[in-house]
Amino acid sequence: MSFTLINNCTLIDGNGGDPKRNISILIHNNRISKIGPAATITIPTTDVNMIDAGGKYVLPGLIDTHVHIMMEVSSIQQMVARPFSMNFYNSVRYMRRTLDAGITTIRDAGGADLGVKQAVEQGIVEGPRMQISISVLGITGGHTDGWLPSGMTLDIFPEYPGNPSGICDGVEEVRKKVREVLRAGADIIKICSTGGVLSPTDDPEFTQFSPEELKVIVQEAAYRKGIKVMSHAQGAEGIKNAIRAGVHSIEHAIYLDDEAIELALAHGTYIVPTLLAPVAVIEIAEETGNMPEWGIRKAKNSLEAHRDSIARAYEAGCNISMGTDAGVMPHGTNLRELGLMTGIGMSPMEAIVATTKVAAKNLGWDDRIGTLEDGKLADLIMIESDPLQDIRSLENPDNISIVIKDGRIVKDIRKTENAK
User: For the chain, how big is the Rg over CA atoms in Å?
Assistant: First the structure.
């Protein structure tokens, strides 16, 4: 049996209340055994890994509900020349950087297959806990269709064993495609009900999938023990169609109108903003030139509307769950999203809750992660700064000195004199 005791920490537990000082946390194996003042905790053995937090802040392990752990944006030339297996080797680095940023759980929105998830679960590679969607479902000519006027096809996530093609048209095709993706091991179904910024032949406001197709997708997923659907949805009509069909979360939500916000509130639909995504497209284009012309143009056109939409959704009281689209930007830079969330009106504490408690609820895992409470999985981080005073300090992984996932220390960069 393994015990770890963290003493003298300032606790932000993920529930949104004021920080609690001089708190101790006892971890037994992979779960939190007891949280409270040191005097209230009984240690059943002398064989304990002691960590003196020195008053530093301890938070739940952070959650990013929209990443692509199998990719990082690169030039078209690099993408077409890269050997297929390099995607898997590169993902090991991406997962390491994600953990180092304090993110212990992710929802992969396309690209990671069952083998990637199992490699982490079996300890073959170090990575965050994950839910996977495997393939992204979309229509011919839609956001997932990499066809180019030259006749070439540039698929970010090409079809291979374990990762079916996601293109499908018509009620019966989408029904079969959902079944194929579930058979491949998907935890959630990812679809595109609108076009997107980085797709070559459509636009964020183009509506994709009919209401009938969307309903069948949601129904087929629900038949498999209530599996949910997440929808890449940027234009208002595609957002509303998805919500009416029963989609669980709307990803990006660039062009929300008042009716879409009202529908999200009425249905309890989660909004995953990914405010960082268009910002990153523009930055990467300026720094490296590794962005297609159509992506740069659409990102610039959508930037202000995106911020306004998420601000209005927040003001209305929608469920806001942190997600970044990491892979569009480098993995490990995910927590830049928190600064952007405060930029649309959220307080630093609200941004943290969106990245912990609310994100866990979005995943359906709030019974085990998202808040620091007795009995929950021991996912937590220790940081060197006060995030309530400077939320952007979390953008620097060097400020996150300890990361514990499932009761194991997976990062510890404390100064030697402070480490015990």
Answer: 21
92: which 2 tokens? 């090991």
What are 384's two structure tokens?
């060197």
Candidate list 13, 100, 145, 325, residue with the active-site label: 325
Task: Please give the angle made by the CA atoms of 96, 286 and 338, to the nearest 5 degrees.
Answer: 50
Instruction: Give the list of residues 6+ apart from residue 281 with CB closer than 8 angstroms, or none.
Output: 197, 198, 291, 295, 296, 299, 328
For the chain, what is the mean pLDDT? 94
**What string of DSSP letters covers 307-340?**
HHHHHHHHHHT-EE-----BTSS-TT-TTHHHHH
Question: Which residue, 327, 406, 407, is CA-closest to 95?
Answer: 327
C-beta atoms surrounding 386 within 10 Å: 15
How would residue 1 be classed by pLDDT, with cut points 50, 70 and 90?
A: low
Each residue of 55-85: pLDDT tens digit? 999 999 999 999 999 999 877 678 778 899 9
Distance of alpha carbon 154 from alpha carbon 295, whole angstroms? 14
Residues with Cβ < 8 Å from 288, sequence gap 6 or more?
Answer: 75
The answer to whether the beta carbons of residues 211 and 190 sit under 8 Å apart is no
Pair type for strands 3-11 and 20-28: antiparallel
Instruction: List pLDDT tens digits, range 334-390.
Output: 999 999 999 999 999 999 999 999 999 999 999 999 999 999 999 999 999 999 999
Q: Active-site residue among 190, 240, 357, 405?
A: 190
Q: Phi-psi category of 134—alpha, beta or left, where left has phi over 0 and alpha has psi -120 to 50? A: left
* In contact, 251 and 274? CB cutoff 8 Å: yes
Backbone angles phi, psi at 344, to 5 degrees: -100, 10
187-231: per-residue pLDDT in tens? 999 999 999 887 777 888 899 999 999 999 999 999 988 899 999
190 is catalytic: yes
Can 113 be counted among the known catalytic residues? no
Cβ-based neighbours of 324, under 8 Å, separated by 6 or more: 64, 66, 67, 274, 276, 277, 334, 336, 337
Listed residue (270, 166, 162, 175) closest to 222, CA to CA: 175
Higher pLDDT, 286 or 271: 271
Determine which helix (DSSP H) or strand (DSSP E) holds 386, and give its type and residue range: none
